[in-house]
Queue: 2 jobs
Job 1
Amino acid sequence: MPIEKPSVDVVIVGFGWTGAITAMELVDTDLDILALERGPMQDTSQTANYPNVIDELEYSVRGKLFQDLSKETVTIRHSLAATAVPYRQHGAFLLGNGVGGAGFHWNGMSWRAFEADFRLRTHYTERYGAAFIPGDMTIQDYPVSYAELEPYFAKWEDVAAVSGQAGNVKNHIRPIGNRWEAPRSGEYPLPALKDTYGAQVFAKASAELGWQPFAVPAANASAPYTNQYGVRLGPCNFCGFCEGYGCYMYSKASPQTSILPALRQKKNFTLKAGTQVTRVVMDSTGGMATGVNYIDPQGQEVFQPAKLVILCAFQMHNVRLLLLSGIGHPYDPVTGEGVVGKNYAYHMNSSVNVRLPKNTQLNPYIGTGAAGTAIDDFNGDNFDHGPLGFIGGASVYHLRPGGRPIQQSKTFKNEPKWGKGWKASVQEGYQRILPIYAQGSVMAYRNVYLSLDPNYRDTHGQPLLRMTFDWHENEFAMIKHAIGGAQKIARVMGGDVEVNLRESGSHFDTRAYQSTHTTGGAIMGDNPRNSVVNRYLQSWDVPNVFVMGACVFPQNIGYNPTGLVAALTYWSVEHIKKLYLKNPAPLVQT
Amino acid sequence: MNKTLIAALCMGAALSSGDVLAQDPLVTQGEYLARVGDCTACHTKAGGKPFAGGLPLETPIGTIYSTNITPDSKTGIGDYSFETFDNAVRRGIRKDGSTLYPAMPYPSYARVSEGDMRALYAYFMSAVPAVSQSNRASDVPWPLSIRAPLKVWRWLFAPSPDTPASPRMQDDQMNRGAYLVEGLGHCGTCHSPRALTLQEKALHDDDGKLFLSGGVPLEGWTAKDLRGSTVTGLGQWSEQDIVQFLKTGRNDRTAAFGGMSDVVVHSMQYLSDSDLGAIAKYLKTLSPQETQNVSITAHNVDTAQKLHDLQIDSLGGRVYADNCMACHRSDGKGYTQTFPGLAGNTVLNDAKADSVIRIILKGYTVPATASAPTAYTMPAFGWRLSDSEVAAVASFIRQSWSNSGSVVNESDVAKVRNTVDINEQRPHGMTVHDGAVDAHFSADANTKP
């Protein structure tokens, strides 16, 4: 029998961005709020202590902040017929762990989504006809519009002290900034970060081609900033240690930098680290949750009763918890019925490297997670897809997150990987190689989904999550088009050009880093037959369970997901406060 | 870490329980005054119940322990009449007639009005939860433990509350400030120099300009000069700077450290804006202790430019550029409300450098307050900078820009280093090697919690 704890009003499972936002937004209701985080306590002063934290071997290579895959991981297969095998080493995606989650070691690129992204199926049907959408593509509209989410994007950008240059304020298109972005209600809280030299080179070349380059919106504060919670962020000093690291300058937004200091002042909030939630516990009818079970740091099983359960774990973990708890009907790719695990999606990336002329000094060590310049002329539906025949698009950008010796000393791929030849090409390339990336959307497909693995279990004896995923022709065509744009920019810059394009026919390779932007599996929709949660991220089946995070995306966007994840969380919590707490019942009638 | 957070949150909850009960305005007033007096600073030990005592206090004659001042009738002050309570607080007389150790600042509290004393009494008796916890005997050895000589000390140095100080200034707000600073605030306890016989050399401004002119090192920290000197005191600070510092633990110039962190967290942040304004206004009336003979602008004006151009010609400058400049910047101004400025920071001009050395060796976390919850932390450098490097960089920041502090020697650093546990700051697998760092991966290095 598990140990039973005194009941709380709200239990939050997972303390990354969505957990921190949820707790902070609920804390003024006087509800008793308990957050359970499976990993260790991590904070800026201890975990991101300078100079110990800028240790590339320990953090980037050995993955100090990442999930221990020997205890729990995901199994992966390419097709329904294959047997999935465990993801035993971090490669394609980097799962976070501990307080702050992946929000502690992220880069800080903070985007909104396009208006059309929220009504994707309707938009493509209207513009290109229903036949344009392939039959096996299971994309659907978000049950919420950009206009509804706009205030929540703005709120998030204030909390995360996002630095950027607005391109569209209330439909006034600016000569600088992103002319393609959805209308904003106001400026960014902070001006854009200073351009690195590489960003200037990219901007000049893309402007020559008639495209409008703009600063990537960065949750790396360009100046000290006090957010609405009274928490103050420090100024980014371009040290080049964002991805894989905590920020010792207090400038990269993270749950512990941006929200936790304010939460610590609140008496009705408790955070317990080292507590692994194993399932949501249901009442005898299966229609209401009574709390959660977790394993405490001593290895004992604990039952934590709660009136409201909010799942704020990472995308994959939320889906797995739903499946393990029997909440909602698991998706069946053969019949197309069921919803939990449906519409898993991802990002597809490729790149172009330019080796600029001799004597160029990019000084790549001057960088930060989101220091870059982008164009959106190949993203969303900002161009005519008709003759191209694919759906979606990619953000094309130059990013300079740093110039670290092990992973960021670039050479061209056909050059020697070791010895004298390698040294010579690092010397040639370190100051001169400028990468251009294309990060593109991945659509949802009938044969791509998440389920419980029939063979492999975690350290607590529970089935692992199984990912069935491979690339589709739509995405190969999408990324080829975007990389075409990147090549044009590269040629204008001058110098040697190397193209790293993911070619049609290749398979999802778990070994090389690709993107941690995994989405879907607990998608939102306008009715229980097409989704796991309603427009307020409330479970259709268990009304006192809410599910936050990228798992609710019906399909992925051509941007990093954190901005949208945060806006949806703010939107959901606002309605929990306004509607659910007053009348704890389904917020959308079926 | 997690446990610390939970413990902190639980303690927060316990501390708040009085708020709910305190309905009587007299009790509410008393609670506020208990904050002003920062009674909890000494009478609540880390992890202990509020006001149950037991906090060890180092004194020159040995360790004494604060007492239980909850209304428990057996172990606390539950059976105290108002007179007994008042005798202890304002006169230093224990219930048994003997004299309190002057760790209890009754020479300052003598300034408190009877009305305020009655409010404090009402609060402690009716709103503080009674805790049964026996007082711990002091570790003061015989014969120093004989309390009779304390009585003499008290007669000599503790003023009587029966002749209340008359308002000395024309301005009501200044008088209120003086009342708070000299009385319950007991600022002089740390910020005024003490004689060999340990009494504060001045208990108010009329006693002379030693009042609040800077204290002696206490628990490793030196409390600064609060008088009007532009070099070491508050001469350059506006009233608003002072209010913001007391309320939030930081201002555009600097941030709280040492004992002042606790004062801000437990006491000052709870004061009303009008009381903080009164304190600021009063402090600004205090004239500098001595005529300044140091020009504060003529000194080392080109430091900022040299650092910016990385024209570095000293060990101190090199250590600064490598370790400090990313936050405190080449112009030494830091970032307002974020990373404290060093240029023009009067703490650096103090004759005693103990506080600065300690911060460099051990690092420091700015206190989190309700209105400024970010607890910025400066990392520790003691585990990787040698005494000569710390001395060099401390001298550098004390003498660069417009600063006018004296040179810090290796021996000064060594003395402070002896009081600091450097090992606890060292990351796993690292050893100290005269400023350089070797990595080793022995089994025991990795097992350290």
Job 2
Amino acid sequence: MSGIGTAGGAAAGSAVPADAAEPLPHYVSPRPFDPYAAERLTPAQERFYSASQWRMVWWKLRRHRLAVLSGTVLLIMYVSILFCEFLAPYGADTRNVDFIYAPPQAVHIFYDGRLVWPYVEGYDYRLDMNRLERIYTPDPKKRETIRFFCHGDRYRFWGLLRGDVHLFCPARGGQLFLLGTDRLGRDMLSRIIYGARISLTVGLLGVAISFTLAVLIGGIAGYYGGWTDILIQRLIEIVQSFPHLPLWMALSAILPVSWSPLLVYFGITLILGLIEWTHLARAVRSKLLALREEDFCTAAVLMGARPARIIGRHLLPSFASHLIASVTLMIPGMILGETALSFLGLGLRPPMTSWGVLLNEAQNINVVALYPWLMLPVVPVIITILAFNFLGDGLRDAADPYH
Amino acid sequence: MIRYVVHRLLVMIPTLIAISIVVFTIINLPPGNYFTTYIAELQASGQKADLVRIHFLEQQYGFDLPLWQQYLRWVGGLLHGDMGYSFLYNEPVSQVVGDRLLLTFIVSFTTIVFTYLVAFPIGLYSATHQYSWADHALTLLGFLGLAIPNFLLALVLLYLANVYLGISIGGLMDPHYLDRPWSWAKAASVLAHLWVPVIVIGLGGTAAMIRRLRANLLDELQKQYVVTARAKGLSPVRVLFKYPLRMALNPFISDIGSLLPQVISGTVIVSVVMSLPTTGPMLLDALRSQDMYLAGSFLMFLAFMTVIGVLISDLALAALDPRIRLQAGRRR
């Protein structure tokens, strides 16, 4: 409302003539007088004033270009994990025994100076008997055109539907290792695509656990205050005073070796979630402490609402947008945590493929020197973490009504 | 001030007790103990275990007692500086651990000093030159520091340091100093090797610190007293240093509470990659083989270090900021 008030004031100010020496002629507008003209809103203004909180957050977020871009990238990544069997040119465990530690192949689109269908140059393989080094040299004469929407390795889509259609695959009898192969001749690109399925969901599941814990514990502390609050505050301090990684290591070392990979996966997400909730719980608590003094809360109490209803129905929605922003900023920590644990060999184990498991192969300094492409799974890790950070920052700014 | 210090010290005691309970629970969670694993391993390879000796050891270390008595023995031992017995190495833990705790402390401490030294000028510059290209570049660099997993950075930096600077790979000193007593030459060698892990571990924390200092200082610079000071004709440097910087420094010190666990986590994983003689690789081994006393004392040491660090930062903060010590006195 203050915006309109100042606008009116400014208009009145400019109506005063600059030089008062020559008075303006008397003038009365013949149009009918509408006393509410100043208060009537244009349709655009009306939309703005009656917009719900979420709509306003969305409008603000849309202006944050980096956040929108990051959100799009994340959306694409999360959608792509639904179809990784289709997107990956090879199966995650397909071994190409003739191409062990093959370096990445470059895609060419020009041949003889003409634009052609994308192709790669086939490898000539030679074993250097002096250094026992595998040497792959691209042979310009072997033109292996990439096929699209083609039949390749068989797979079971999500373990259910049989299929063999891929987005792109190597030429018949040829190879296509855009990111090289590992020590068993498995295609890195395919493994990275499959790894996304685990790595990206570990963060989400872990955050879901943390989020529940944080809202529950922080909610109780913030709403009841007093002794409960003090006790919970101490608990949070204790959990926070543990360095996360050693604690994660200790907890994941507990997971029985006999567990199936799927159980280990859920175990790891649980462990990640059990430790990361403290910051969010603190945020929830301090917000609740401030909000429960508000009038609408007193009104609800007077009307006889129970605590669970007040917390859930009145208090949480008033800072839900803030919560979402914090949650977005929590996910990257979990993804990094899983990567670190798997890298150390304490997290997920090889039949499962996550980016951390892939990086486990790059544990050795020899890899940096000889097969640097084995470190490539770090690229999607970096992209994901940056994207979550940018999106979270954007969301936080958008959710802040005073910003 | 004294009241605050006493209060802060008293609060630490229940925290430490709770931490020791958690650590003890964790190391006792896996089914069986080191001996059951050990006997099973021997039997699997067709050897006979020396059951009499094992039984003696089990009794000696109280594995037949109820858990709460085991816990009391363990904590009682810790208070006397007796960290128990490492079955993996067949030596008392304090022997096995040796220099490692000291080196962990040195690495962590240096990293924090590094973080402050780097983050302070950069944060200051970024805030005073907001939206300049240098600010954007530094912000980008900071984000990259947050996003790159430090273990991988450690590998790459290690490789580069070896190829271009000829620093020996792995370890905190040149190999020939390994079993020598401490000397100046050895200390110099440690310093020459220290910078790689310090940069790698410190990068994430430094990036976070720069962002926080920049944000705080920007908030502070927009306040009215700064405008007043500038309008009075104070020199820009004085305007900056007299109040806004001091205000923005508060979180700088209190952040050590979140920085320290991060640094210690970083030390653990980076030291595994770089095979530093710190607690990391040994903790990993101990966890894998269920050597519970060894793992327990490492965890306890790391948590203890964090608690002490937070204590120091709280005290420093109280010494710097009168609001904090007065508030604490009033509330209790």
